[in-house]
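Lecture 7 notes: from sequence to structure.

We start with a single chain of 334 residues. Read the sequence below before looking at the structure.
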Amino acid sequence: MQNMSSRFRNIFLLFGVVAVAIMLFNFDISYDELLENLQRAGYYLPLILVLWLFIYVINTASWYIILRSSGSLYTLSFARLFKYTVSGFAINYVTPVGLMGGEPYRIMELKPYVGVERATSSVVLYVMMHIFSHFVFWIAAVLLYVSFYQVSVEMGIILSLVTLLCLFLSAIFMKGYRNGMAKACVNIGGHIPFLKKYAIRFAENNKEKLENIDQQIALLHKQKKSTFYASLSLEFVARIVGCLEIWLILNILTSDVSFVDCILVVAFSSLMANILFFLPMQLGGREGGFALAVAGLSLSGAYGVYAALITRVRECFWIVVGLVLVKFGNKKDA
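Now the structure, written as tokens:
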């Protein structure tokens, strides 16, 4: 069984280290101010870091049941899949046009255990589920806002547009679940100038493999609906649990914030960050999203800035952990 070579792991690691270094040098705050704010966070910061350990466990469980639905996992343990989950997210965080770096890494690591087709279909399915849960989360946030806040005409228009966008994208994803997405993604690449030649050649050389991958993707939705909805539910739960991070952060500053407020802050800030998905770690988009979200809930804009800062620190911590896991804890190459 041939494992991913050290050369490829070193490439992923080197890219991540460079990206982290760039991000650290581009903090819009002095290191003295950063240290002061971290001290202000006190024991809340370790709680936030541990919270994300549990969130990654939930993410891993979502991916695990997708893999289990297509057959035995043999020697692939949950702990090893957790390692690939954390490392994959770390690579995605530092990759421009998110979800473009961690997925090849996950496929290459899984290949020795379940084969390239099953590895690819499970990764594509998990990414689709992870993204799909965004739409469900945003729609749930709209319903929460309408239930707990007075809706102005302007906000009503914004919420309506968000709902329509989420429903439209959800319909596209449901079509992808029914018919598969592998061939569609390659076909999209065939229309991109710099990728066109390679995408067409790849599609021609791997036609049968792409069809098998799409069949496995469609199978989950058609015949294994319990697995489909269990995975989606876990991803949605992970997003709700993630809102505890903002609740913990804002409770450092004020006790006048409800958990519903925190869900809305996360929902609207993540919406803004994903609109600017082409930036590594959504630099600027996340901070702007937090500021707009707390302002929309009549909270001080300083709360949003502070929340964004602590969130960045947490992301940097788990990026470093993920990059370390890329290199360590691997089986020796055969």
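Residues 278-285 have pLDDT under 50 and may be disordered. Keep this in mind for problem set 3.
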